[in-house]
Amino acid sequence: MAKVLLENVTKIFDGDVIAVDKVNLEINDREFMVIVGPSGCGKTTTLRMIAGLEDVTEGKVSIGDNVVNDVLPKDRNIAMVFQNYALYPHMTVFQNMAFGLKLRKFPKAEIKKRVEDAAELLGIGELLKRKPKALSGGQRQRVAVGRAIVRNPAAFLFDEPLSNLDAKLRVTMRAELKSLHHRLKTTSIYVTHDQAEAMTLGDRICVMYKGLVQQVDTPLEVYNKPVNRFVAGFLGTPPMNLFDGQLELKNGDMYFVNSAFQVKCSQSVKQKLSEYSGKNVVLGVRPENITMTPPQGQTENIIESTVEVIEPLGDRVEVYFSTKNNDRFIASIDPDIPVKIEDKMNVYINADKFDLFEPGDTGKNLTLA
Amino acid sequence: MFIIKKGKKIYWEVILFSIIIIWVAVWLFPIWNVFVSAMKSIDGYISSRPWEFSFDVNPIIQFYENIVRGLAGTQRGSGIGPAFLNSMIYATVGAITAIIFASLAAYALSCLPIKGRFVFFLILFSGTVFPLQIYLIPLFTFFQKTGLYDTKLGLTLAYTAICIPFCVFLLRNWYLDIPKGIVESATIDGATELQTFWHIFVPFSMPPFVTLFLFQFTWVWNDFIFGITFARSRTSRPIMALLAGLQNMYSNVGIPAVLASAIIASLPTVLLLVAFRNTFFKGLAVQYGGSSK
């Protein structure tokens, strides 16, 4: 077990495509770090550089106390689980799991013990004599994880390991990976584009976009205090609603104003953002912070809107609205509240439950400053 | 397809099967002639039509005698016996050596980070493009100067070299289909490049190996032109070269013995194909882009 440290790590492909741009990331010993981002954000390249499958163009990768830039993958003491499992098709489950140990010349008895222990831990003890093609997707995934475990490495690297599984199995395996980490406590780095996996698995998550690290923090901090508009929009299902508009001072109060509605800011926000008065900003509101009925006597923070689509999910209902100026937004509401398509409603944005961002896809969160 | 009315279907089937039966008959007729003639004495062969049995002697016993004559030869000519063994060596050693070298080359050309590896591949691949005859004169001169002319080693080398380009071509295609993740997984598991080749690629390549072995074995076994060009003596001439020389002005084993020898000479390739037909067709699918893994 060891901590993994990335310092100014950069990867440039073919001389001019910057896939990963000066990434600094510290993954503590025993920590479960999830790197999340849309496709092409550089997350997998980052992981492959840690594994040694890609050269580092600039910067330093350290595992434990050693800089491993020039160390071969096999000598980095890491194990990796691939998206398509990458099991050896001609070997049995036992041989698949034992392969790494065999190459490292472990004694036979030790190999047998380790493989059997890992198989039991993962509930695949019955399958040791089978070939991969005789296994289901979930079983293959377990074997791939088992192959990583038997090596007892300093760190596990996971490259979207659940994305080939069906939705239900993915949730089960997610929980299994979490409990496995709880038991083994091996430093883990997990790459995914699925924000639900990121939120549920990570001790901390690292959000990447366009080769840059946007934010590294615990899942709840990232969700509740996104540093910029990209992070805010990327995490959460349904995503955060974003409205263009500007800040205005009216009668001593600060308002977010656009042509359809206005939202009053708190005194602390007003103090922080006084210099932004008259400037364009983006308002971000999570779907769960929009209520159907304003509190008694409340006249601020109300959006006149029309119901366009209703998606009942059982425990809640997702309602798609459009405002007067045809901005669309989503509210996540209680299923008991009656709504119909084309209803005209006055919905309410909970006081102070919103963020303000600078314009641009990675505009910084002004309310945090 | 054309199954609309029952009557119409039967009508088509009759035509179809008639065509197939005629086709098969056309193909089998010469083979029948060979077998029937191989069971005749020289006199019987002269006095009967090729497709008729001649019962002047017991055909089974005569067949056996013809085989022995063909293998051992007569006072005035040599049999194909020693050449059968020579060709066995050329075809087996040539095919296997070629596959070993070609698989290593294909692995390097498909998986190792070699600069300009496609150019190397094209150079190797060009070996399948030119007609074989263009190698004859340069190789003949080369063999004479190096003392390889009329030796088993010389012919084995020539056959091996000729087999390599096609093997590289087929195996490279096969290896390019192996998922990259498996190779990377082996790298992380601690395998060196040679270990990855040995533990992952070789076991994975049995279908193309068998197909290539059959192809190259058959090719070497049936080769005539290299055999008569690069070897002169009985100790190194391959079977087809000797078979052609069984009946001529210097040899008098007789046509029935020649045909019996031809049957013997075609046995190994037929038996190999029968034995490995399943793997053979699996490997064949690779060539035409079908995946059968």
List strands and helices in order, with pairings.
The complex is a heterodimer of chains A (369) and B (293).
Chain A: E1 4-13, E2 17-27, E3 32-36, H1 43-51, E4 58-63, E5 66-67, E6 78-81, H2 93-103, H3 108-122, H4 137-149, E7 155-159, H5 167-184, E8 187-192, H6 195-201, E9 204-209, E10 212-217, H7 219-224, H8 229-234, E11 241-250, E12 253-257, E13 262-264, H9 267-272, E14 280-285, E15 290-291, E16 302-312, E17 317-323, E18 328-333, E19 344-349, E20 355-357
Parallel strand pairs in A: 3-8, 3-9, 6-7, 7-8
Antiparallel strand pairs in A: 1-2, 1-4, 4-5, 9-10, 11-12, 11-14, 12-13, 14-20, 15-19, 16-17, 16-19, 17-18
Helix pairs in contact in A: 2-3, 2-4, 3-4
Chain B: H1 6-38, H2 42-47, H3 59-72, E1 73-74, E2 77-78, H4 81-111, H5 117-125, H6 133-146, H7 152-176, H8 180-189, H9 193-204, H10 206-222, H11 225-230, H12 239-244, E3 247-248, E4 251-252, H13 255-275, H14 277-287
Antiparallel strand pairs in B: 1-2, 3-4
Characterization of this structure:
The complex is a heterodimer of chains A (about 375) and B (about 290). Chain A is α+β, with helices and mostly antiparallel strands. Chain A folds into two domains: about 5-235, P-loop containing nucleotide triphosphate hydrolases (Rossmann fold), CATH 3.40.50; about 240-355, Beta Barrel (OB fold (Dihydrolipoamide Acetyltransferase, E2P)). Helix content of chain A is about 25%, strand content about 35%. Chain A has nine helices and 20 strands. In chain A, helix 2 (about 95-105) runs parallel beside helix 4 (about 135-150). The radius of gyration of chain A is 25 Å and the shape is elongated. The mean pLDDT of chain A is about 90. Chain B is mostly helical and about 290 residues long. Chain B folds into two domains: about 5-75, no CATH class; about 80-285, MetI-like fold, CATH 1.10.3720. Chain B has 14 helices and four strands. Chain B has helices at about 5-40, 40-45, 60-70, 80-110, 115-125, 135-145, 150-175, 180-190, 195-205, 205-220, 225-230, 240-245, 255-275, 275-285, and strands spanning about 75, 75-80, 245-250, 250. In chain B, the strands form two sheets. A two-stranded antiparallel sheet of chain B has the order 1-2. In chain B, strands 3-4 form a two-stranded antiparallel sheet. In chain B, a hairpin with a 2-residue loop joins strand 3 (about 245-250) and strand 4 (about 250). Residues about 290-293 of chain B have low confidence and may be disordered. Chains A and B meet through strand 6 and helix 2 of A and helix 8 and helix 9 of B.
